[in-house]
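A.,

Following up on our hallway conversation. Structure tokens first:
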């Protein structure tokens, strides 16, 4: 069995990192506990807010990638995969450089460094093969990679990926949706927490 997992906002969480960077720029009060989604919505109401949002993304996913957090429940899921000898691949839509980042930090290198720091590639950690991590330039390329790898299951936080017209029909679709409110409905199984994803997927493995 091969399980594919998205990276940003599925494995790596950024709410605190985005709030800290927005506060550094004077866009929200220091210490405010704001989610990435709420910050983006707030910035979109400002003149040139979309540019400011992309600049923040460039910093958080690059120079400040170390501030990202492993989302609760991911470690347990990966440990469960390891115990069952289930292979895992990470497939992400991630450009090499962030928008408006004067330092031109390589976002893919930053992401893999963060994964290494979290023990993803350690034999006594999660034991993931470094060659099983793929960063693609476009959403279309990401979906094509999911198909090419032959994933039995894919987990993503974006409905747009799981409902893409080229998404492989043979791959089980799981949506990680931690936001409040009703869970989205579609050609996927939605869970608000990784514990639910783990029970659902691994119980059938």
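Then the amino acids I'd put at each of the 205 positions:
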């Amino acid at each position: 069995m091969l399980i594919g997992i998205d990276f940003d906002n599925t494995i790596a969480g950024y709410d605190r990192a985005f709030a800290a960077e927005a506060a550094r720029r004077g866009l929200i009060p220091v210490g405010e506990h704001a989610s990435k989604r709420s910050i983006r919505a707030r910035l979109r109401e400002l003149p040139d807010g979309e540019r400011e949002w992309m600049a923040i993304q460039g910093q958080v996913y690059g120079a400040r990638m170390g501030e990202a957090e492993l989302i609760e429940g991911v470690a347990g899921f990966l440990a469960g995969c390891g115990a069952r000898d289930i292979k895992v691949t990470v497939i992400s839509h991630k450009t090499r450089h962030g928008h408006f980042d004067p330092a031109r930090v390589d976002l893919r290198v930053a992401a893999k460094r963060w994964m290494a720091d979290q023990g993803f590639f350690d034999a006594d950690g999660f034991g993931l093969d470094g060659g099983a991590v793929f960063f693609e330039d476009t959403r279309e390329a990401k979906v094509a990679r999911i198909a090419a790898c032959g994933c039995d299951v894919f987990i993503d936080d974006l409905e747009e990926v799981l409902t893409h017209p080229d998404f492989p029909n043979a791959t089980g679709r799981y949506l990680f949706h931690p936001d409040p409110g009703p869970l989205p409905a579609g050609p996927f199984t939605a869970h608000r927490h990784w514990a639910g994803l783990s029970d659902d997927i691994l119980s059938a493995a």
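The mean pLDDT is 94. Curious whether your intuition agrees with the design.

B.
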